[in-house]
Amino acid sequence: MPEEDLVDIKFRLYDGSDIGPFRYSATSTVDMLKQRIVSDWPKGKTIVPKAVNEVKLISSGKILENDKTVGQCKAPFGDAAGGIIIMHVVVQPSLAKTKTEKKVDDSPRKIVCSCSIL
Length: 118
Hints:
The chain has 118 residues and is an alpha+beta fold. The protein is built from three helices and five strands, in the order ββαββαβα.
């Protein structure tokens, strides 16, 4: 693989720490990057993605789509020789899990009264 087809990417986390840099092929997909992030997530962080779909990658102010390649997402200023592209990582827990965790039992209840009348 020619050297120009490789891209160095560092992932910036919510607390300012980084994962990487790692070298990727320009044909690698955003989904592949997210898989790497989830598998290499640092221990001891308060926010931890449980699945790839909880991770959003942002580069040059744009949320990257899973099916796009690194080459398609690379901004022109990322082409500088020896430059490392920094992508920001946002973790969003899936809504289905949060809704089920906070589910309130609002089913109707039958009230039984045992009153005695004199």
